[in-house]
Write a structure and sequence with these properties.
By secondary structure, the protein is mainly alpha-helical. It is built from four helices and two strands; from the N terminus they run ββαααα.
Amino acid sequence: TSPYSPNNIVEGRMTMGIEWTSELSVNIATVDDQHKTLFSIIHSLENAMTKGRAQHALGDILAQLVDYTHVHFACEESLFDQYDYPDKEEHKQQHAEFTDKIQAYKSQYDAGSIAVSKGIVSFVSEWIADHIRYRNKKYGIYFVANGFLDTHQQQ
């Protein structure tokens, strides 16, 4: 099973006090699953912190985060281009800034000049949750209104 499998996510799982709920859904199943995976990666670091092994785990978890954000952001940005999303350039810039910051944390960790901190974990978890809540919800509405078909079934 892939460490990025969205099937490892349980509705209501906590990540640094931030909980995945249906309110974070962008109503695009593929993207929602990717968002849940990001929460899972963050949750891994939170678990490592509570078990006292965060410093050892930080490098691997930051590497996973860097790798998976590239995958996820490429997926979103492909949709931006495909559906001519009007806010795509600003959104792509936010992705680039986040990726650069996470890569900088990873580089500092690799050089031995950074220790795990609640600040890093809080930054990552809050950025992702806020980004989904305030930026991604907008494109979800736009994509669905413009014919994107990979939506959750409405019941």
